[in-house]
Write a structure and sequence with these properties.
The protein has about 450 residues and is α+β, with helices and mostly antiparallel strands. The chain has a single domain, classed as Cytochrome p450. Helix content is about 45%, strand content about 10%. The chain has a seven-stranded mixed beta sheet with strand order 1-2-3-4-10-7-5. Helix 5 packs across helix 6, helix 8 crosses helix 10 and helix 11 packs across helix 14. The longest helix is centred in the middle third of the chain and has 31 residues.
Length: about 450
């Protein structure tokens, strides 16, 4: 049981320090939510380190936009170098700017529309393996589906299920190691020959081999393929030099990992909510049956899938995958009344922010209709599922499109109901994922669903 956060007496003009807590080892989500009641910026102790938690949506927005140059990505992202190199999610300064400009064309909205058919076809390959009445590990199925979409659309690769599962397991191993190393305030054990460290090395070896094979296949192709791998192979820096092999491998590996995790976790939570709200599930089925009319999903359908989109929006609010995001001050900075020294560690929690009762009425209720245009909307900075500013996730539009496609595709074929005895709890790891999500797949029976199958 986590010790309740209690303000320690402090001198006038200084931040409260919350002491005697071990928040990152026990009830992490409850602790982050509890901190919101202690002020706009709160100082906590994590072992020997001081960490500043930013709660105010205005100050979070300021940190990510107007003052973004005063911060680097911080401790958590530094630990994600376990994937190798300094890929886009980790890169800083000029390197980040150059790499983002290089990769941005692959994520333009017009380009994303061209991906829709392949997204649907790739997801269909996973859905086709489901059997009526089968008990599914829904998170695992969504991870395989999302990973397959990234590999197909961005890498022109379509691994079989067993190799894909091995890649997914390796990504999870690296993510688990990254979050552990970010929150545990001791060092040195990473270099010891412990079982966890050996497992991490094996996972990195498999990922490296998988990505190397993808790159080799592209190099051997008679004509370049129209995907992100070809874009990286053809890229040249300001001096006309190509990216070196390690840079290419790092970018592809990081994109494979990041591009699979957020979408998969979001989809798992979405179907969890539909499974315990039959009325919402029925409304979704009616929408996809009407819009798709039994045919394949295309880019033209997306603007008409308005409820589907709101379901994704609400899932990213109530079940935001990010329970902790880090920053580090490059210089002395001021956030509101807080004066923070250079080198200060800062964190903010999208998960806690999106559940704040001062920002959202009845915040723990899953209500996609809160996003209807006629309903009052949260203030700026209160809903930022992909961050903001120059470090906003490059794949946000890709994820919106992918999640909409996957939701509509599954709903057009299947109804997912919770398996008896399933106890679903949020687990804060690299993302907030369901502890266990066992669901029973039942085929849809409406005429439109039968025609689509």
């Amino acid at each position: 049981m986590t010790t309740p956060a209690t303000a320690v007496p402090h001198a006038p003009g200084r931040l409260p320090v919350l002491g005697h807590v071990v928040p990152l080892l026990r009830d992490r989500l409850g602790f982050m939510q509890q901190l919101r009641g202690h002020g706009d910026v709160v100082q906590i102790k994590v072992g020997p380190r001081s960490v500043f938690v930013v709660n105010s949506p205005d100050l979070i927005w300021e940190m990510l936009t107007a003052q973004s140059a005063n911060f680097n990505k911080g401790r958590l992202f530094d630990k994600l170098r376990l994937f190798g190199g300094s890929p886009l999610p980790i890169a800083e300064g000029q390197q980040h700017l150059q790499r983002r400009r290089l990769m941005q064309p692959a994520f333009h909205r017009e380009r994303i529309n061209s991906y829709i058919d392949r997204m649907g076809a790739t997801a269909e390959a996973t859905v086709r393996t489901w059997q009526p009445g089968a008990r599914l590990d829904v998170l695992n199925e969504m991870q395989l589906m999302a990973q397959g979409v990234v590999m197909s659309v961005m890498f022109s690769a379509e691994p079989d299920r067993d190799p894909a599962q091995a890649v997914m397991n390796s990504v999870d191993t690296v993510f688990q190691a990254a979050i552990r190393r970010a929150v545990v305030p001791v060092s040195g054990w990473e270099r010891l020959p412990l079982p966890g460290n050996r497992k991490l090395r094996a996972a990195n070896t498999l990922l490296r081999r998988t990505v190397s094979d993808i790159v080799a296949a592209h190099r051997a192709a008679p004509a370049p393929q129209d995907d992100l791998v070809s874009m990286l192979l053809e890229a040249r820096d300001e001096d006309g030099r190509p990216l070196d092999e390690d840079e290419i491998l790092s970018e592809i590996t990081a994109l494979l990992a990041a591009g699979s995790e957020t979408t998969a976790v979001t989809m798992a939570w979405l179907f969890h909510e539909l499974g315990r709200n039959a009325d919402l599930a029925q409304r979704l089925h009616q929408e996809v049956d009407t819009v798709l009319a039994g045919g394949p999903l295309t880019a033209e359908h997306l603007p008409r899938l308005v409820l589907t989109r709101r379901l994704v929006t609400e899932t990213l609010r109530l079940h935001n995958p990010g329970w902790i995001v880090t920053r580090e001050a490059n210089v002395p900075v001021r956030l509101g009344t807080a004066h923070l020294p250079a080198g200060a560690d800062l964190v903010w929690s999208p998960y806690a922010l999106h559940r704040d009762p001062e920002l959202y009425p009845d915040p723990l209720r899953f209500d996609p209709d809160r996003w209807l245009p006629e309903r009052p909307q949260p203030p700026r900075g209160a809903y930022i599922p992909f961050g903001a500013g120059k470090r906003m996730c490059i794949g946000d539009a890709f994820t919106w499109a992918e999640a909409t496609v996957l939701t509509a595709l599954v709903a057009s074929r299947w109804t997912l109901q919770h398996a008896p005895g399933t106890d679903v709890r949020p687990v804060p790891a690299i993302t907030v994922h369901p502890s266990s999500l066992q669901m029973i797949a039942e085929p849809r029976t409406p005429a439109a669903a039968r025609k689509a199958a």
